[in-house]
Amino acid sequence: MTWEYLGYIASVFLVISLMMSNVVKLRWFNLTGCVCFTIYGVMIEAWPVAFTNGLLALVNLYHLYKLHRAC
Hints:
Layout: H1 3-17, H2 23-43, H3 47-70
Helix pairs in contact: 1-2, 2-3
Transmembrane segments: 6-24, 31-51
Protein name: Uroporphyrinogen decarboxylase
Keywords: Membrane, Transmembrane, Transmembrane helix
């Protein structure tokens, strides 16, 4: 598998996340896409991609935690 495929998979997860009406599902799909993009960025040494998506993954985790506590 080339790392390019992981980038495409990450893109698919992000697009799917934007189609969700359920916020929890949106966060999980977006988190998965961000993690994939973070790994992709590290593997191709695209540090802005890795850094930005790593931060976005943390934001998604924070919001998932808040949503879980509200239930």
